[in-house]
Amino acid sequence: MSFTHGLVTEAVELSPRLRRIVLRVDDPAALDVKPAADSAVGVYFPISGPDGKTRIDPTSEGRNYSVRYHDGALITLDVFLHAHGPGTSWAATTGPGGRVGLDHARSWYRPPADTQWQLLVTDLSGLPATARIVEESHLPATVIAEVADPQDLEYLPRRSDTHVITIVGTGNGHAPSRLAEVVRAQPLPAGRGYCWFAGEAAESRAVRKHFRALGWTIDQLDVTGYWRFDSEAWDARFAEVQDEVVAVYTEALAQGKGDKVASEEFDEALERVGL
After folding, report:
1. What tens digit of pLDDT does each residue of 53-70 get?
2. What integer pLDDT is reported at residue 17 of this predicted model?
3. Which of 9, 14, 36, 98 has its CA 20 to 30 A from that of 195?
4. For 188-238, what is each residue's pLDDT tens digit?
5. Would you call 228 exposed, middle or buried from its count of C-beta atoms within 10 A (0-12, 13-18, 19+)?
6. pLDDT at residue 185 above 90?
7. Taking the mean position of all CA atoms in its chain, how far away is CA 15?
8. Mapping DSSP to helix (H, G, I), strand (E, B) and coil, where does residue 77 land?
């Protein structure tokens, strides 16, 4: 079982909308944080039970956060604060001594060995992972970042071989996103490229379709929807068709197609049912 607990050892404000939280993991071996640059963990927050006591329930609603730094039992999470939500409430108020549940460590960033350049596409939700990729990767990169304020980009590390294209004031739950639009208009360098995407799920679908139409192979893409606009309505509709669409993913894996192809076929099944 990968579920364990974490103790908050430090919580500091990096900017008015960004908070850094350092956790000491009770059982690092069980959690098994991935070494990839977009490593992430599920965080489960304390909730009040009927008896008034707080508890941590791994079946309750959690949030996924990128691991900005990982050092043994310590993991650092940089959390952007939004207008509302359990993650924002926790991140804005937690401090040393706070406890959370941790589970579902995973990652997606997997550029093939023959990659010559990379396109990193992100909104605020993916900015911590983008920063770590820029910091750790040896590949030249173009970053397309959709942020609320130009100040948000001060968080990104600077590299001479990294070019940043900024979209300000759209997406991020406040207005329609322009990420897919800007990706489609972006001239691509020569050589074999790789695209990593972290943002709203509908935009991720549009970006994946764009590159597949250009003839890119599935291993050149790690395109992940980090969140969904109007998630409550989406969840309600998904509950009606869950068995049907999950069966598509399961069958693809059973046929040995691999998780990337299975995920693509799963997303196509979602689109067919209007999701």
Report:
1. 788 887 788 899 999 999
2. 87
3. 14
4. 999 999 999 999 999 999 999 999 999 999 999 999 999 888 888 888 888
5. middle
6. yes
7. 20
8. strand
Give residue 200's Cα distance to chain centre. Answer: 9
Residues in the chain: 275
* Measured distance between the N- and C-terminal CA atoms of the chain, rounded to whole angstroms: 31
Amino acid at residue number 46: P
**DSSP reduced 3-state for 79:** strand
Give the H or E element holding residue 127.
helix 127-136
Residue showing tokens 């972006």: 186
Contacts of 18 (CB under 8 A, 6+ apart): 78, 79, 80, 81, 152, 155
Query: How high does pLDDT run on average in the chain?
Result: 93
| Residue ranges of E strands in 26-113 | 40-44, 47-48, 54-55, 62-71, 74-80, 99-106
Give the mean pLDDT of 40-47. Answer: 93
What does the pLDDT read at residue 1? 62
**Residue 117's closest CA among 195, 184, 186, 187?**
195
- Check: CB of residue 56 under 8 Å from CB of residue 47: yes
pLDDT of residue 117: 98
pTM over 0.90: yes
Contact, 243 vs 181, CB < 8 A? Answer: no
Instruction: Say how far apart CA 269 and CA 73 lie, in whole Å.
Output: 39
Query: Residue 234 is encoded by which pair of tokens?
Result: 């989406």
Phi-psi region of 74 (alpha: psi -120 to 50; beta: other; left: phi over 0): beta
CA angle 52, 58, 100 (to 5 degrees): 70
